[in-house]
Specification:
Two copies of one chain form a homodimer. By secondary structure, the first copy, chain A, is an alpha+beta fold. Chain A has a domain of 74 residues: Orthogonal Bundle (Arc Repressor Mutant, subunit A). Helices cover 37% and strands 19% of the residues of chain A. A two-stranded antiparallel ribbon of chain A has the order 1-2. At the A-B interface, helix 1, helix 2, helix 6, strand 3 and strand 4 of A face helix 1, helix 2, helix 6, strand 3 and strand 4 of B.
Chain lengths: 145, 145
């Protein structure tokens, strides 16, 4: 069998996802957003330059991942905040996969960081590849259907 | 509740995963590897410059994701091929997550591309966030544990 060849352009879902999420810093910004951060100064704390953050926030709004809205703290002037849309929250699966990969390769990392939990029940979540019968797979391939 | 703050350095599993996988082209190279491609010329077909591919292959070997071995076709001279290690195959979950994200945001993309299937049974696989009772979550947050 010939190795499977993928379309390299946006006709591949993986390539499309990387087009939206693949730029440096973008997924770390979304990690912070999923953890409840909303403000420019909060996102800056991950250590990226101001101009880069501005560009990333514009791009994420264009893709409908974040939405900008005015934010007013008591006694302070109105600022913008950037909130995940429902569409944007679907990035969770990508962050959970990176988390799983990172933990597997660096089991020495301190566990104090974070985990994923259901928003309603608060139950901890794990990411699994399952078939239609519910069996968990630990050895998947990419195949043409 | 204060928004959760993550360590931005390698102490965060997500940041560590991005350190290994986050450079441009790396995940597309691994997409091809997971689909059975092994040779330099095959990876070149995704459209990246020669020098960039060389750098990425070196990096992926340093991280134990790919291993280089000699490859000989009948009548041709010996060349190198680059094969996913067991450690490298754990990138599947990241590619499956990007695939799920990409399909969700671009349902118009032709389905001819590819899907994930179990290597042994051949059954199609889907990626799910589940809690300990097996309930699927569609609304996860990142929380400190």
């Amino acid at each position: 069998m010939d190795p499977l060849s993928f379309p390299v352009n946006a006709a591949c879902p993986i390539a499309h996802a990387l087009d939206v999420l693949g730029e440096k810093w973008t997924l770390l910004i979304l990690r912070e957003a999923l953890a409840g951060k909303t403000r420019f100064a909060e996102f800056r704390e991950i250590g990226l330059p101001r101009e880069v953050l501005s560009q990333r926030l514009v791009r994420l709004q264009e893709h409908g991942i974040l939405v900008k809205r005015p934010y007013k703290q008591a006694g302070a002037r109105v600022r913008d905040e950037y909130v995940l849309t429902d569409r944007g929250r679907t990035v969770t699966v990508v962050l959970a996969a990176l988390y799983a990969f990172g933990r597997r390769h660096r089991p020495d990392l301190p566990l104090r960081t974070a985990e994923f939990a259901d928003r309603v029940s608060g139950n901890a979540l794990t990411l699994e590849l399952r078939d239609a019968d519910g069996r968990i797979s630990d050895s998947a391939d990419l195949v043409r259907r």
